[in-house]
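Protein of interest.
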Amino acid sequence: MTTARITWIGSAAVVIALGAGSAFGQEAAPAAPKWYDIMHISGFVDTYYAWNSNRPESHDNFIPGTGTTAKRADEFGLNLAALEFVSDPKPVGFHLTLIAGTGAEVVHLSEPASSSTGRGVFRNLYQASISYTAPVGHGLLLEAGTYPSHIGLEGFFSKDNWLYTRSWLGEFSPYYQTGLKAAYTFNSHWSGQLHVLNGWQLIGDNNDGKSVGTQIAYTGDHLSASFNTLAGPELPNDNTHMRVFGDLVASYKVTPKLSVATSVDRGRQDLPGGSAANWLGMAAYAHYDFNAQHAAAVRVETFRDPDNGISGYAQTLSEATFSYQYRAAPGLILKFCARHDHSTAAVFDRGTNGKTGNQTIAVIGAVVTFGG
């Protein structure tokens, strides 16, 4: 073999090796993530059976406009089914939650009816928002759309609450809101939020005014607390008369198994003619984890609405609730709830077209979750 031929073969081998190395390098480079790789899908189905000592012919357990949990008496029911699609803001994300059930019907009752808004339009929507994390200090989170309210101890998903049914404080404050949120973490303990909103638990606005919400929150090893506000014109077709609302929430981890909490709400609604309606609610909670499967919780509360500012009646409500939770299997949560309500007005349905100021209910709930 000639020297020239050997040289040509060697050069060709080098070229082939370099090409293979280049191709190998291209194959080894990480591919850009697909949308289905960065989106998390989860959900749950929450079913129940509720017994009511009043045996109401209407099958309504609670005051009209309330009862986002266990609304129907003496029957099996679908409390809530939810399907969530979430992409964390890195730096852009979104959150979509679709819902169905009696809770979904009740929570949207106050939506203003029109050709493009109302309960029928939004009955299957709980959250639809986009978010962006701005590189400012410890991180500034901006969120726009419809998203869970910043107010209250108890959220709209009963599976995540200490007790299966929710308090009157929860029922008479927003579960969701529509607008723009700016949230900032000052340090490892303190954070704050600012909201500009359409209004009080609304997707479509009922007037031309906007509401402003705030939150200042503290999180520690044992104590967590937040003070939340919401202020703005909330009466339909009224941009003048203001509603001012404050909510204080605090929880304390007494031991690794025992936690206690309290919530206080104070509201005022200005009315035409110079008058105003005021309300005040207070609740206390205790929660005990026996182990990873078993837990129990109690709640007592009172809610004073002497001017019929928010509850639909001039009344004082009180209730005591006991709840027991059993995680029977991965993805299966069983909850038992016993509750007694009392009102100074006859507001609860009884029998055939009757009314009373007292009711006792018992609820068995079963929640199946998937995806986390």
